[in-house]
Amino acid sequence: xxxRMVKQRSYKLIMTYGYEPLxxxxxxxxxxxxxxxxxxxxxxxxxxxxxxxxxxxDPGEYDAQIRQSQRERIFLRxxxxxxxxxxxxxxxAQPGDADRFVRGGGLKKGAHATKARYQFxxxxxxxxxxxxxxxxxxxxxxRFRR
Length: 146
Known about the structure:
Layout: E1 3-8, E2 11-16, E3 22-25, H1 43-53, H2 59-80, H3 97-100, H4 106-109, H5 111-117
Antiparallel strand pairs: 1-2, 2-3
């Protein structure tokens, strides 16, 4: 979702839409390991930085626009799956960019297809296998606030 970061003096705030804010004192914690957002001693700093981050910015509206754009692109891609057409939204700065650069294009024409074409030695496609030490349950679900 939409993310915004602001920094003021030694404090850095990261706001990811749907998740709790992250507040760090970069002077005391340059590795950003200690989230101060829930520390009452930093409530005023958090409020000031949130106000700054939300100036001229509505993450809920931005999220809605992103999701609408995704729905439209998924719909258009679905229309082209059984044809030779392949919608590509990459910006073309000058003629020939499509031949010089690997852009989007999904499995048919994008980076996946290019890598598969030039892979040496050739190998059969492999199904992804999840790593046993990775556990998706450690990622908290988003809590959207309106």
